[in-house]
Write a structure and sequence with these properties.
The complex is a heterodimer. Chain A is α+β, with helices and mostly antiparallel strands. Helix content of chain A is 30%, strand content 20%. Chain B is of the alpha/beta class. The chains are: A alpha+beta, B alpha/beta.
């Protein structure tokens, strides 16, 4: 699971109002180099919740993202490189995503988050 | 003999089709034309509006003494290879419906490339054959496209990951019901959604069962899950987004198109395919008023059904 996906996932339990961002508890992660595509990064930037991305990156030991970011930063190659690395090159293999409201944990196994709910949560 | 990654050479001994309800069908590599005549594909007639755009069916039987044409090799490289598709007893293997969907995407490939999608998503990815094929055929767009794939069956999610890895591809795979947990944040962001839903008419209680049953059990008229998918796809699709969905005649695709029209979607049948078991349509939907591609213009969905017999079963239910 890339941090892109972490940024797009929220708790889906019925009645939960503040299910984003899920707290990332990473036990195992890997880094895989991917070609940087500035066009994709510029397109996705406005949709990214920056604080959630920076927080998730810190959870896997990557602290090179600024606390805040705005679109003007996309002109900086250095910023793009860090954004790209955090968003697309870090893969969480094992761990959990924890709902900030209920504390319910969603396991991440072999890189796949499991968002399936129990009957009483739907 | 040249080992060649076409579907028909790589069949495992056990196959399951949705309509047979998971009853294993014995197939023998290279001999399915005899053992299973339903897999020769009538291509519709020349009057089919999309007929000229259709590629050769990707699962056409090829015997080893037929010279491998360059065109066929090109096409093989544009889809996932059956030999690299991972499997699991509880995961639906690529079958006629999967091939119909991939052929529809192939038929529309040029348009897809021009479309320049940034995010693509498969809902119900099963073995991963379709999302892998899509990623391969959009390969020239490189890292400008990212993929998501979901399945309610955790075994399928795992198998999809393995299939992607075997092809050297990546998609973000999530175990979830349709797009639960993703659809809020991904709303309006997905440029291409592909779905091969559980479309087989079954008793309602089979819908959403654990394991492989979830891949075919479609409830009344096979529409229970399909009707849940449409609002999700509508939410996920970007303004220029396209949805490709497999349907069965029993699902009443004319009524499906009419229902989507009311939601503001135009539609077009990209592939129509009949086997002895089932008559499949792969339908493409896009928001009306947004030009889907230059060839399509504003064709009425009504004019796209070439077969009168098709209408008899579709009725006029609203």
């Amino acid at each position: 699971m890339r941090l892109l996906t972490h940024n797009m996932l929220s708790c889906n339990i019925k009645g939960v109002a503040n299910g984003f961002p899920l707290r990332l508890e990473a036990e195992k992660w890997v880094e895989k180099e991917v070609e940087l595509n500035a066009d994709f990064l510029r397109h996705i930037f406005p949709k990214i919740e920056w604080k959630a991305l920076a927080g998730a990156a810190r959870a896997v030991g990557y602290c090179e993202l600024p606390e805040e970011a705005d679109a003007a930063m996309l002109d900086s190659e250095d910023f793009l490189r860090r954004f790209h690395h955090a968003l697309l090159e870090i893969h969480v293999e094992e761990g959990a995503l924890v709902c900030p409201e209920t504390g319910r944990g969603f396991p991440i196994t072999k890189g796949i988050p499991n968002m399936l709910l129990h009957e009483d949560e739907v | 003999m040249v080992e060649f990654g076409t579907h028909q050479h790589m069949w495992g001994p056990r196959r399951v089709t949705k309509l047979l309800g998971g009853i294993p069908v014995l197939r023998f590599p290279g001999s399915f034309d005899r053992s299973y005549p339903a897999r020769s594909f009538p291509r519709g007639d020349a009057g089919h509006p999309a007929a000229s755009a259709l590629p050769e069916p990707s699962c056409r039987p090829v015997s080893s003494d037929v010279p491998i044409s360059e065109a066929l090799l090109m096409k093989v490289s544009r889809t996932a290879q059956i030999g690299l598709v991972s499997c699991h007893p509880e995961v639906y293997e690529p079958c006629d419906d999967s091939f119909a969907l991939v052929d529809a995407l192939l038929a529309d490939r040029e348009h897809l490339i021009e479309h320049r999608p940034r995010l693509c998503m498969e809902l119900g990815c099963g073995s991963g054959y379709v999302i892998s094929s899509l990623a391969i055929m959009l390969g020239e767009l490189g890292c400008g496209v990212n993929y998501f794939a979901t399945d309610i069956n955790p075994d399928a999610a795992q198998v999809t990951r393995e299939t992607l890895e075997a092809h050297g591809l990546h998609a973000e795979v999530i175990s979830t019901d349709i797009a639960s947990g993703l659809q809020k944040r991904l709303a309006g962001m997905i440029d291409v959604v592909v779905v091969n839903p559980p479309y087989v008419p079954t008793p309602e209680e089979e819908v959403g069962c654990k394991g492989i049953t979830a891949s075919w059990a479609g409830g009344e008229n096979g529409r229970t899950v399909i009707d849940r998918i449409f609002p999700v796809a509508d939410e996920l699709l970007s303004e220029k987004g396209w949805l490709y969905m497999v349907t069965l005649t029993a699902n009443n695709p004319t009524q499906v198109c009419r229902m989507m029209k009311e939601k503001g979607y135009a539609s077009r049948i990209i592939v129509q395919r009949s086997t002895e078991e089932e008559s499949l349509h792969v339908i493409k939907f896009w928001r009306d008023g947004v030009i889907a591609n230059s060839a399509e213009g504003s064709d009425s969905w009504l004019s796209q059904f070439p077969f009168k017999s098709f209408w008899r079963s579709s009725g006029t239910s609203a």
